[in-house]
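Quick one:
INPUT:
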């Protein structure tokens, strides 16, 4: 992992990191051994550590955060650098994130190639830094800049970090870094550990003001945010070693909390999905040209992402009604990339006039927001136009994959590519395939998701969207809660307190009860609807926000919502005499159980590869708060027996699934199934 070369007085330690660029226990041990040998070599006056192939780009090994031997190995290498009797220069060509960035901070001097970036994303895992960043960063850049980085988790150009950035080396990086090190030797510059730096501590008043300014943001981030603020303050008030000890205690305490465990689970699931997609994409890819057919926000956003990924895009608005506006929207989205102008991408985008113009692309993505017959007509025509190597992808939630494949007559070439997002900014993509889908088509879909920077979540062909099933189960559980005695206000508040932006009844009102019922009947059929209160409100004309009244009444001028008196009477009429008082925790458990049960159904039927795959779908596209880690992770945390007992009702989606019962019988959890597909 560490290759050592001696050039006169300079020992160059080149860091290679073949296992996903994590700072692992074995990586730390190899680095410690190489460092110790270099420091003991009497011919060496200075040590230059440099990275190759993004050796520090991933940083923290999420699967081993609580591994005490790993943390001991990491602390050993940091202490070796900090206390080295010879200057240690960190020379970074690529990005360094998390623990990788903290390793860079430990050096006595830091050199960067143009474009190299540092980031401290631990907060996204619900954690404070665990390798000294809260003590070293404030000593270099002060409290304000340090807290902006640590509390946001953003990755920034190293050149913007002031005293962190000793020099930028353009051109031949290895040669320039060696010249820098030789210059320090010729000037007899001693070691300059960060523990002795005072740049960022020089103005205690400004330091304390920065702490006050960031306090509200830190508190919003929970325990990890509060710990980061506390540790940064310790950089000013405590000796360096005491500050490191405090940081380590905060890190270990946070790592065992439910929220960080859930966030770690999700991050591991995302990394595993990306690895699987990368492996799949090795056998093919979307190529350099794609065509996108559609006129909605999804088509616009995907086109912008594809252009930024360097792909050539042919964009077709079949109606030609929005082509001009779409082009303007696309350039607006692309120009959000720093320093980029329209001219940089103009040659990549072609606004085309017909389906025949799309046929020469390597992949055609149909992202039409139109009724099923129109979508199927497009697939039928494409089937006559495209060659045998072209992949046809559907992004329509209204049409099943089998129907698209049948219409095109090109079943092996047809896949589903469904962007998953809450606000038209996709973070993942559902990759749907059938038993007849060809390998090159799957590879092309995985490759496109990778190129667009999206997590690819594979699913087998499904009769309806997993989001429709999950939403229907949630509505059925919520409807039953009303019949058992809960109020729509208490149910909605219970879900919002878990992190949902809306409760189920707020969401129903916003969607419109008639539209929701129509969709539900298409998903599961009228006989299995099991939504008596929702149906009764719709029949009474209480159809939601557009009508001014649904579960809530809406003020026509302000939009302010209050519980509807008319709805309350209908709800009361559907209750029996044994009305219960249902606690918030019970409401949350029954709704989570409904979502988990749908996940158990899809995993048990083989439609989703693992419980973690369902978690990814629900977090990226189903509105489940990231802090829960997904319904299946939340079920494991609550206990599967408790989840099964919380399934109340006779609706098929609320009857315990066989997979759930089998796991309980065998004393297992959903996490055991994740391990079976190498999720960690």
């Amino acid at each position: 992992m560490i290759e050592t070369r001696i050039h006169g007085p300079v020992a160059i330690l080149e860091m290679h990191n073949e296992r996903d660029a994590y700072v692992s226990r074995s990586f730390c041990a190899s680095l410690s051994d190489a460092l110790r040998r270099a420091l003991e070599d009497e011919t060496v006056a200075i040590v230059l550590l440099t990275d190759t192939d993004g050796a520090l780009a991933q940083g923290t090994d999420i699967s081993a955060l609580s591994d005490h031997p790993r943390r001991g190995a990491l602390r050993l290498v940091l202490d070796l650098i900090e206390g080295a009797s010879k200057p240690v220069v960190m020379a970074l060509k690529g990005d360094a994130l998390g623990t990788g960035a903290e390793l860079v901070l430990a050096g006595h001097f830091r050199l960067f190639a143009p474009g190299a970036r540092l980031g401290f994303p631990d907060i996204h895992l619900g954690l404070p830094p665990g390798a000294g960043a809260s003590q070293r960063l404030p000593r270099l850049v002060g409290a304000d800049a340090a807290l902006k980085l640590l509390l946001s988790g953003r990755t920034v150009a190293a050149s913007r970090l002031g005293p962190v950035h000793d020099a930028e080396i353009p051109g031949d990086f290895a040669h320039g870094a060696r010249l820098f090190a030789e210059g320090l030797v010729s000037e007899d510059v001693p070691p300059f550990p960060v523990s002795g730096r005072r740049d960022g501590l020089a103005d205690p008043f400004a330091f304390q003001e920065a702490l006050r300014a960031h306090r509200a943001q830190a508190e919003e981030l929970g325990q990890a945010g509060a710990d980061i603020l506390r540790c940064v303050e310790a950089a000013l008030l405590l000796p360096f070693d005491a500050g490191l000890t405090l940081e380590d205690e905060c890190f270990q305490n946070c790592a065992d909390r439910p929220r960080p465990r859930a966030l770690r689970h999700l991050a591991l699931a995302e990394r595993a999905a990306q690895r699987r997609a990368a492996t799949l994409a090795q056998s093919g890819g979307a190529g350099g040209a794609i065509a996108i057919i559609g006129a909605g926000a999804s088509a616009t956003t995907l086109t912008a992402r594809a252009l930024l990924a360097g792909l050539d895009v042919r964009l077709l608005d079949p109606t030609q009604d929005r082509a001009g506006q779409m082009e303007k929207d696309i350039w607006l989205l692309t120009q959000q990339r720093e320093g980029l102008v329209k001219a940089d991408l103009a040659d990549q985008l072609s606004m085309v006039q017909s389906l025949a113009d799309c046929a020469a692309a390597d992949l055609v993505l149909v992202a039409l927001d139109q009724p099923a017959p129109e979508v199927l007509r497009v697939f039928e025509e494409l089937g006559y136009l495209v060659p045998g190597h072209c992949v046809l992808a559907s992004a329509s939630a209204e049409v099943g994959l089998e129907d698209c494949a049948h219409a095109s007559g090109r079943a092996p070439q047809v896949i589903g590519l469904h962007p998953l997002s809450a606000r038209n900014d996709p973070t993942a993509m559902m990759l749907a395939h059938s038993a007849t889908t060809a390998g090159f088509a799957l590879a092309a879909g995985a490759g496109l998701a990778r190129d667009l920077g999206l997590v690819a979540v594979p699913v087998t062909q499904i009769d309806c969207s997993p989001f429709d099933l999950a939403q229907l189960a949630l509505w059925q559980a919520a409807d039953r809660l009303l019949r058992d005695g809960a109020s729509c206000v208490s149910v909605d508040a219970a879900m919002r307190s878990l992190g949902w932006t809306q409760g189920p009844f707020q969401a129903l009102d916003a969607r419109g009860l008639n539209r929701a019922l129509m969709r539900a009947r298409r998903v599961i059929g009228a006989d299995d609807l099991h939504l008596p209160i929702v149906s009764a409100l719709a029949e009474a004309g209480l159809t939601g926000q557009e009508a001014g009244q649904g579960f809530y009444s809406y003020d026509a001028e302000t939009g302010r919502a209050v519980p509807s008196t008319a709805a309350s009477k209908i709800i009361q009429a559907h209750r029996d005499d044994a009305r219960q008082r249902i606690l918030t925790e019970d409401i949350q458990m029954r709704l989570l159980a409904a979502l988990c049960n749908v996940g158990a159904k899809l995993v048990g039927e083989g439609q989703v590869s693992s419980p973690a795959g369902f978690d990814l779908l629900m977090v990226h596209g189903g509105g489940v708060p990231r802090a829960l880690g997904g319904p299946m992770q939340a079920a494991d945390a609550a206990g599967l027996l408790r989840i099964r007992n919380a399934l109340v009702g006779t609706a098929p989606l609320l009857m315990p699934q066989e997979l759930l019962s089998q796991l309980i019988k065998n004393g297992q959890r959903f996490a055991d199934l994740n391990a079976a597909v190498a999720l960690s």
